[in-house]
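Prompt: Have a read of the protein record below and flag anything odd:
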Amino acid sequence: MSQQLPSITLQTSTAQMALSLLESGNYHQALQVFQQVADRDRTLDDSVNQAVCLLHLDQPEAALEICNQTLELSAAHPQAWLFKGVALYRLGQYDEAYACYAQAAAIADQQTPHPTQRPWARCWQALKTVTKRFSA
């Protein structure tokens, strides 16, 4: 007699497969798999990862829409703010993008107890350095 796995396990493994595809650079396939995860089973991280796929596929408008939807559900999701900033940057909305980066860094700092555990602080500094080079 075969045993049925619970639906949530299937959805979780589907999301894990999509994440593996994303991490290996198979953005189109990852996007297709993320889209197969039912809305009721999709986590906020799954949604943000779907936006990342869209950014890699040069679809910043669609990525921005997903990030906005994610932020409506959780305004304290630093990755949603970060990738909203990336989408806005690619759309040429630089001031709005930088505001999103700052929001991502501020939220991440609040969620991380010790300054040495704050990778966002280092990323934010690196981003400011790089943008100064382009601004000059």
